[in-house]
Amino acid sequence: MRHCIAVESVAVEIANEIDHPVDVELVSVGAILHDIGRGYTHSIAHGIVGSCVARRFGFPEEVCLIIERHIGGGIDSEEA
């Protein structure tokens, strides 16, 4: 939870500094929920699993896509 709260804080700070309109609430919710899939797996697939969980609970598609797409940065091609 601490990680998700820290990610949310940084993401909202960045969103508030961007020069064009940003849905800060969407950024906040996506950041808080980005690792929801870790309740099912700690593999790189947690993003995909998490987006499925979010869809099952009726979250907007934009939130589901944040969860699904947050993975991939900083991993090598083998892990990807």
- Helix/strand structural class: mainly alpha
Which segments are poorly predicted (pLDDT under 50) over 5 or more consecutive residues?
A: none
Strand coverage percent = under 5%
Q: What's the overall average pLDDT, rounded? A: 92
Number of helices: 4
The radius of gyration computed from the alpha-carbon positions, rounded to a whole number of angstroms, is 13 Å
| Percent helix range | 55-70%
Quickly describe the structure.
The protein has 80 residues and is mainly alpha-helical. The chain has one domain. The chain contains four helices and no strands.
What does it look like?
The protein is globular and about 35 Å long. The chain has one domain. It contains 4 helices and no strands. The chain has helices at residues 2-17, 24-33, 46-56, 61-69. Helix 1 packs antiparallel against helix 2 (24-33), helix 2 (24-33) packs across helix 4 and helix 3 packs antiparallel against helix 4 (61-69). It is mainly alpha-helical.
Give the helices and strands, then pairings.
Elements: H1 2-17, H2 24-33, H3 46-56, H4 61-69
Helix pairs in contact: 1-2, 2-4, 3-4
List keywords for this structure.
mainly alpha, 80 residues
